[in-house]
From TrEMBL:
EC number: 3.4.19.12
Presence of the UniProt keyword Lyase in the record: no
Alphabetical UniProt keywords: Hydrolase, Signal
Signal peptide region: 1-27
Chain ranges of the USP domain: 41-356
Protein name (record): ubiquitinyl hydrolase 1
Entry annotated with the keyword Signal: yes
Superkingdom of the organism of origin: Eukaryota
MF term (GO), any: cysteine-type deubiquitinase activity
Biological process according to GO: protein deubiquitination
GO cellular component, one term: nucleus
InterPro entries noted in UniProt: Papain-like_cys_pep_sf (IPR038765), Peptidase_C19_UCH (IPR001394), Ub_carboxyl-term_hydrolase (IPR050185), USP (IPR028889), USP_CS (IPR018200)
UniProt catalytic activity: Thiol-dependent hydrolysis of ester, thioester, amide, peptide and isopeptide bonds formed by the C-terminal Gly of ubiquitin (a 76-residue protein attached to proteins as an intracellular targeting signal)
C-alpha cells in the first residue's frame, strides 16, 4: 500500500510538473501570435486530448497530404468526417490565430469511435492509423462511386491503381518475407503492405540508436513451437526461419517505437533513449531486387513524444515547417520554435520521415 501511495504521489507530481512546463512555454506562444505563421498553429486541449493534438500536428506538417486534401477537387469528394478534419487543417494553414480548438474533429471522432469518447489517455499511434485508414476508405469510396458506370461493364477490372489514394500513395510500403522450412529447406516468398513499422527496442541498454531498433526488426527469426509455419512440401508445421526485408520503401515512413509492453504480468513503459538523426538510410534493409533501383534516404519531419507514465502521460509533437524551415514544439495550444538539436528526445514515440524534401505547399489562399 505504501508503494501504491508513493506511485500516486509520483503521478500527481508528474502532472504538476507537466502542466507547469506547458505554462512556461505559453509565453513563447504569445510571441509567435504576432508572426502568424501558416501551418504553425497550436491546438487547445479539450480534456486529455493531447494524443489527438499531437497526431493532428503530424498530419498538418505532412505537406503533400495537406496539399491534396485542401484541393477543391478533392474536397468535393469528401464525406462529413473527412471534411471536418480538412477544415481544421485549412484553419491551421490559413487561419489567423496562433491556436484553434479541434472541437468538431474531436466530436466526429467520438461519434465513430466510442473508445475515444472519454477523457482517458489513448494511444497516439492507434489514432494516427485509424485516421489514415478512415481517410483512405473515404477517398476510395468516393472515387469508386464516381466511376461506378464504367466499373459495371468490367467488374474484374478493379486494378491496384483504382484502390490507391493519396494516403496509400504516401504512406504505404511493402515488406517481403522469405521463409525457409528448417526440415526440407523449402523456400517461400510473400509480401505484405504496411503503413507503420512497429519497432522493438533492445531492452538491455538505456541508450540505443534507431538503427539498432531497425536491425532488430529486420533480424532473421526462427519460428518455433506454436508459431511454426505450415510447409507446403512437408505438409506439416515445421520450424521456420523468416527473413524480413523492405521490398518497396514508402514515400513517408512512419516508425513506431514499442515503448509500451509487458514484463511478466505487468505493463511497462520502456524508457530507453532511442537516438535518431535528421537523416535515415534504409538501404541495409532493402531487398536485393530493389537495392540499386530504390532511393531509400529519408529526412525526419515530425516526431510525437510521450512523457510520463503508461496511463498517465502527456503527448507533444515536434514538427518541421517547410515555410519557416524551422522546427516547432507543439504542446497543445502552446507553440515554440526549437533548434534542430532539441528535436532528439528520450520521449520519442513516433517518428515520421519523408523520402523527398517537402516543397512550399501549393494551397489556394496561402
Ligand atoms: Zn518442409
Amino acid at each position: 500500500d505504501y508503494f501504491k501511495l508513493w506511485y500516486t504521489v509520483q503521478e500527481i507530481v508528474m502532472c504538476l510538473v507537466l502542466s507547469l512546463l506547458s505554462q512556461g512555454s505559453r509565453s513563447s506562444a504569445v510571441r509567435l501570435q504576432a508572426l502568424n505563421r501558416p501551418g504553425v498553429c497550436g491546438l487547445d486541449n479539450s480534456g486529455n486530448s493531447c494524443y489527438l493534438n499531437a497526431v493532428l500536428q503530424c498530419l498538418c506538417s505532412t505537406v503533400p497530404l495537406v496539399e491534396h486534401l485542401l484541393n477543391q477537387d478533392t474536397r468535393k469528394e469528401l464525406c462529413r468526417m473527412a471534411e471536418v478534419f480538412v477544415r481544421l487543417l485549412e484553419e491551421m494553414w490559413l487561419g489567423r490565430s496562433s491556436s484553434c480548438a479541434p472541437v468538431e474533429a474531436r466530436s466526429v471522432l467520438c461519434s465513430i469511435l466510442p473508445q475515444f469518447n472519454n477523457y482517458s489517455q489513448q494511444d497516439a499511434q492507434e489514432l494516427l492509423l485509424f485516421l489514415l485508414n478512415a481517410l483512405h476508405d473515404n477517398l476510395k469510396k468516393m472515387r469508386s462511386s464516381i466511376r461506378q458506370p464504367r466499373q459495371d461493364q468490367n467488374r474484374n477490372c478493379a486494378t491496384a491503381a483504382g484502390e490507391s489514394t493519396i494516403v496509400s500513395h504516401l504512406f504505404e510500403g511493402t515488406l517481403g518475407y522469405m521463409t525457409l522450412c528448417m526440415h526440407c529447406d523449402h523456400q517461400a516468398h510473400s509480401t505484405q503492405t504496411f503503413t507503420v513499422l512497429s519497432l522493438p527496442i533492445p531492452t538491455d541498454n538505456i541508450k540505443c540508436s534507431i538503427q539498432d531498433c531497425l536491425s532488430l526488426f529486420f533480424e532473421q527469426s526462427i519460428l518455433t513451437g506454436t508459431e511454426q509455419m505450415l510447409c507446403s512440401v512437408c505438409g506439416l508445421r515445421r520450424e521456420t526461419a523468416v527473413l524480413t526485408c523492405l521490398e518497396k520503401p514508402p514515400e513517408i515512413l512512419m516508425l513506431h517505437l514499442k515503448r509500451f509492453g509487458c514484463k511478466g504480468r505487468n505493463q511497462v513503459k520502456l524508457r530507453t533513449n532511442v537516438v535518431f538523426s535528421m537523416r535515415l538510410d534504409l538501404t541495409p534493409f532493402l531487398s536485393s531486387s530493389v537495392q540499386n533501383t530504390s532511393y531509400s534516404s529519408y529526412r525526419l519531419y515530425a516526431v510525437v513524444n510521450h512523457a510520463g507514465h503508461l496511463n498517465m502521460g502527456h503527448y507533444t509533437a515536434m514538427c518541421h515547417n517547410t515555410l519557416t524551415r524551422t522546427w516547432h514544439c507543439f504542446d497543445d495550444s502552446a507553440v515554440k520554435e526549437v533548434q534542430d538539436s532539441l528535436v532528439q528526445s528520450p520521449n520519442a514515440y513516433l517518428l515520421l520521415y519523408s523520402r523527398k524534401p517537402f516543397q512550399k505547399p501549393k494551397i489556394y489562399g496561402l
